[in-house]
Design goal:
The protein is an alpha+beta fold and about 70 residues long. The protein has a domain of about 50 residues. Helix content is about 30%, strand content about 15%. A two-stranded antiparallel ribbon has the order 1-2. The site of flavin mononucleotide has 8 residues, from strand 1. The site of flavin mononucleotide (FMN) has 8 residues, from strand 1.
């Protein structure tokens, strides 16, 4: 949920992102490069930048809101 908040705030600033938890498998290698302070361990990587709309990449579709959310009114 914390990450989702960061992702949404990035969009609000016009930025795009791609979280990747798989980086956590390589936390020792990453630590050799970034030297994290104390007992910090990499939990999740996240690329942040601007999407290249011209890039040839598969685009994941989005389900319509009504497929996953039900608004209950009283
Ligand atoms: C917390 C989190 C961790 C993720 N970790 C990975 C990962 O390790 N490897 C991966 O291929 N995709 C991972 N994803 C999915 C990608 O970030 C991305 O959502 C997916 O490629 C689909 O792109 P889209 O969300 O722009 O449609 C993760 C997503 C979230 C929210």
């Amino acid at each position: 949920m914390f990450l989702q908040t960061v992702l949404l705030l990035l969009r609000a600033e016009g930025l795009h992102s791609c979280p990747q938890m798989t980086w956590a498998k390589f936390h020792r290698t990453v630590a050799e490069i970034v030297s994290p302070p104390g007992a910090l361990v990499l939990f999740c990587g996240m690329s942040i930048g601007f999407e290249d709309p011209e890039a040839a990449q598969p685009r994941t579709g989005r389900a319509p809101l009504g497929e996953t959310v039900t608004f209950v009114e009283r």
